[in-house]
Amino acid sequence: xxxxxxxxxxxxxxxxxxxxxxxxxxxxxxxxxxxxxxxxxxxxxxxxxxxxxxxxxxxxxxxxxxxxxxxxxxxxxxxxxxxxxxxxxxxxxxxxxxxxxxxxxxxxxxxxxxxxxxxxxxxxxxxxxxxxxxxxxxxxxxxxxxxxxxxxxxxxxxxxxxxxxxxxxxxxxxxxxxxxxxxxxxxxxxxxxxxxxxxxxxxxxxxxxxxxxxxxxxxxxxxxxxxxxxxxxxxxxxxxxxxxxxxxxxxxxxxxxxxxxxxxxxxxxxxxxxxxxxxxxxxxxxxxxxxxxxxxxxxxxxxxxxxxxxxxxxxxxxxxxxxxxxxxxxxxxxxxxxxxxxxxxxxxxxxxxxxxxxxxxxxxxxxxxxxxxxxxxxxxxxx
Length: 383
Fold this sequence. Notes:
The protein is of the alpha/beta class and 383 residues long. It contains 14 helices and 12 strands. It is globular.
């Protein structure tokens, strides 16, 4: 039987790699016998900073500009070279959109991908074309396309990502599979206690508790939420917001003084998992109002902790929610429309309670155990 190995840009056994997705995937997959091990491809040593600087310097001298080293063949070949013997005869599941050319052309390995979005979606939707030098985007997309066509199969996090694979990259639909990743919530025992204890629609004083988790205040729509809160408060709604991840100084100055906002800052789940679970679980509604979003693991975490959800109707996010426990907000909806939603929820605690009950009753659907079962079933059918 083939060895089944997980790869990422970084070490899958390190929870800091790619928002913890490879870590939680590998941990659960090893438990279920779906994957055997992860490839420890660390990129945080000083030598990698030197390589990046040298690569960028050469590009600048040639007039191509800087940025995009992680998409280059130099980077990929250097990253994978130490593992050339280890991967012989294996099944590889890669959480990055690229393999090096030397691995793409090998006939002794079965290559799979597990991606949240294609590069075509990322470079355009996230506005990251301007962050890389000339020719990087086009080269990365063509290398990505070749890799997909030589792969055994691709696991996409959403229907949105799957559509890009089929429509933009020309991958056969039979080789594209949808597996939504699980919640990266760590302490499920604590989550069970807190969510069961705090399952009411609002606090005893009648206020509605919101929580926002994210590092990018503009793309994730924190500014939209704060402006809507201010409008709702003017209409008499009693709403409280807890912000986790964003530094208060990262938001526009006029929004920093929004009333009833608790700026918690960054919480390291590796060392403060219980505190994170407590702070999120003690709220009623988890919020994300992204302008662009490949998926939204935070949405899965909100549901896993028994919260109702306000989610962005963009990208792959609609596949990351439990519809009966969530409300979708489009990127083009105005602050006034968002405020109207908040006001309505603040005046209807029964609806909030019902949404939370749905999340809690169906929390097993959003955990990694379910995602890994789906991955295992697909790999068994195709290998």
